[in-house]
Amino acid sequence: MYLMRLLVDYPLVSGNGFLLGCGMDMTIRTRFAPSPTGYLHVGGARTALFCWLFARKHGGQFVLRVEDTDEARNTDEAKQAIFDGMNWLGLDWDEGPGIGGPYGPYFQSERKEIYDRYFQKLVDADRVYESEGAWRFRFERKPITMHDLVCGEVTIDYRDESNTPDMVIRRSDGSYVFHFVNVVDDLEMKITHVIRGEDHLMNTPKHLQLIQALGAVAPKYAHIPLIQNQNGSKMSKRDQGAAVDDYPRQGFVAPALVNFLALLGWSPKTEEEIFSLEDLAQRFSLEAVNRAPARFDVEKCAWMNQQHLLRMRDEDFAKAAAVVVAKAGLSVGDDFSTLAKMVKEKVRLLSEVPDAIRFLLENEFAYDLAAVEKVKSNAQAGASLTAMVGHFSAVAEWSSEAAKEAIAATAAEQGVKAGQLMFPLRVALSGKSGGPDLGAMLAYLGRERSVSRLQRFIPQLSSML
Question: Catalytic residue at 237?
Fold first, then answer.
C-alpha cells in the first residue's frame, strides 16, 4: 500500500502517466517556501527542518524561496523574522535569499516573467480559458492518484465537475495564484522532493494535473502530519509556543527546539529522545515519519531544553547564560563561569539563570515562606544555626571543606546529625529550599557573608530560641 516508501531512489510512473522521481543518480533537492506575512511559525520551522534533514541525509541541496506575492500582507519585518529564525535554528540554505543560485530569483515577486512563460504554455496547449476576467485551468475529467511518501496512495475523482471545478490560476488583475506559481517554481528549481504539511495534501492532485499539462516531471511528495495543541485542536499563530522568535527570548537554546520539532511527527524507532542536529541529519528518513497528528507539549520542550543545557560544555553554557544575565541587569564580574557552573544543573531555561544566581550576588533577598515554615517545624533549628555562627566565625582558612567541618562540629555539639542542619542552612543562605550544591554556595559566599546571612535569618526563628 505504501509503495512509494520503498522507492525513494527509483523512478515510478503512476497509473495516470505522471513520471515521479528521477532515478538513482539524481541529486536530492528540497525547498522551504514560506510566505512573509508574520513570524516564523513552529509548523513552518518543522517543515523547513524536515526538508533540511532530508537534503543533508542524502547529500542534496536545500533551497529557500520566499512566496511574497501577497503585497497587502507581506512585510520586510516578516521576511527578516524568517531569515533570523532559520539562522538561529541552524538551518542554512544552499540556494536562496542572500546566497543566490542557478535557479533564481528566489523571491516570487521577482519571477513574473517566468510565470508568464509557463502560462503561455498552457494557453498553447488549450488548457486554460478566460472566465469573468480571470483565467481557469481546465482539469482532465478523470481520477487522479498520487503516491505520497508519508500518506500512501490518495485518489481524487475529477469526473464530477460540481465537486472539482476548474481552478483559477491567473486573477483578473494579472497576478497568479498559489497553485500555479508553486508548481512552476518547483519545476524551474528542479525540486525532487516536496515535503510540506498535510493541509496541502488535497492540493497535490491539482498540481499533478498542472505538471502533466506542462509536459514536465513531477517531484515526489511527502505530506507530514499537522501539529496540534494538547487538546487536539490545530495549533494556530495565537497559541502558546507558536512563534519561533519567542523561544530565544524565553531562554531556549536552538538545538533543543530543533530536537523537539524533529520528534513532532518523526520517530527514531528507539527509546532515544535527545539528538543534535548532526545526529538527526544522519538518522532522519521519511519512512519514519508518522501519519498521525503530533501534539505540542510546552513542558516536554522545556524538559528537552534542560537536557541540552546539561550536555553543553561549561564554558558554552556560561557564555550563553551571560547574555541573559546581563539583560536582567545583574553585574557578575569575572567569576561568572563559577556561578554558571553552580546552577547549570538546576535550570531548565537560560531565562531562569538570573533568579537562580541572584541570591549569590545580592545580600538582600526574600525568603520562601514555605521553606521558612519547614525550618520552623524543626525545634532545634534556631539553636543549631546560632551555634553554627560561632563555628563558622572560628574558621581561619575558609573553604567548602572547612565549612563542612564546622557544620559537623555544630551537629556534634547540638546532638543532631549533620544532615539535619543542611536544609535550615540552605534556607538561611539563599532564602530557598533548593538550589546549587551547598558546599559550592558556602565556598562562593565566603565566611563573612555566610555568617552575615545566618545572623539575618535567625530572627525569623526567634520564637523557637
Answer: yes
Higher-pLDDT residue of 240, 274:
274
The one catalytic residue among 142, 237, 269, 327: 237
Distance, CA of 74 to CA of 97 (rounded, Å)? 16
pLDDT tens-digit profile of 375-409? Answer: 999 889 999 999 999 999 999 999 999 999 999 99
CATH entry 1.10.357 includes domain 313-360: no
Please give the class, per CATH, of domain 3-228: alpha beta
Mean of the per-residue pLDDT values of the chain: 91
AA identity, residue 53: L
Amino acid (1-letter code) at residue 62 = F
Cell of 96: 536562496
What is the rounded distance in angstroms from the CA atom of residue 258 to the CA atom of residue 276?
8
Cα 188 to Cα 48: distance, rounded to the nearest angstrom? 20
Judge whether 421 and 392 are in contact, CB under 8 Å.
no
Residue 211 CA to residue 202 CA, distance in Å, equals: 15
Indicate the pTM of the whole model.
0.90
CATH 1.10.1160.10 describes domain 246-309 = yes
Q: Mean of the pLDDT values across residues 168-184? A: 96
Backbone phi and psi for residue 64, each to the nearest 5 degrees, phi listed first: -110, 120
